Every structure is written in structure tokens, then in C-alpha cells.
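Quiz preparation item.
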């Protein structure tokens, strides 16, 4: 499903917020007039995302229709070196 179709389907299903790691979606989709808000994650690496649960929840709770919020998720120095 293309992003535009996904946003329409999410709205039609009653979703208020979509959380995604697709960082390009905010440049590819016009959210003006949308009922849906986007929360864009700065990573799709689960151990990194997991460490930002409170920030994700806060952005979801504060989301307003048509908004797009980005959450920075820098890799820890340990992850950058290929460690665990």
C-alpha cells in the first residue's frame, strides 16, 4: 500500500495517530486537512526505538490532526561501533 493510501485507510479506520520510521513520509505527504497525525521515529532499530518509549508516548499523546512530529534517535556510541 502506498503512503497516501495508508494514511487514508488509517483515517477511515478511526486512527488518530500513525507512528512510522519512514522519515521521508513527512516530505512526501501533505498533511493539511488530515485528521491523522504522524509521529516519525528517527530509527527503525528496535533496541534504539525501545529506549525512547516515553518520548514516543508523549508525542502520540500531544499529537494534533495534521501534525507531524519527528523524534531524534541517535545511536549510542556502543551501537555505532557495532557492539550490542
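Solution:
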Amino acid at each position: 500500500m502506498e503512503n497516501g493510501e495508508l494514511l487514508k485507510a488509517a483515517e477511515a479506520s478511526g486512527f488518530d495517530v500513525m507512528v512510522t520510521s519512514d522519515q521521508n513520509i513527512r516530505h512526501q505527504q501533505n498533511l493539511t486537512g488530515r485528521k491523522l497525525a504522524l509521529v516519525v521515529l528517527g530509527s527503525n532499530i528496535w533496541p534504539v526505538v525501545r529506549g525512547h518509549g516515553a518520548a514516543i508516548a508523549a508525542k502520540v499523546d500531544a499529537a494534533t490532526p495534521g501534525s507531524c512530529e519527528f523524534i531524534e534517535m541517535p545511536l549510542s556510541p556502543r551501537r555505532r561501533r557495532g557492539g550490542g
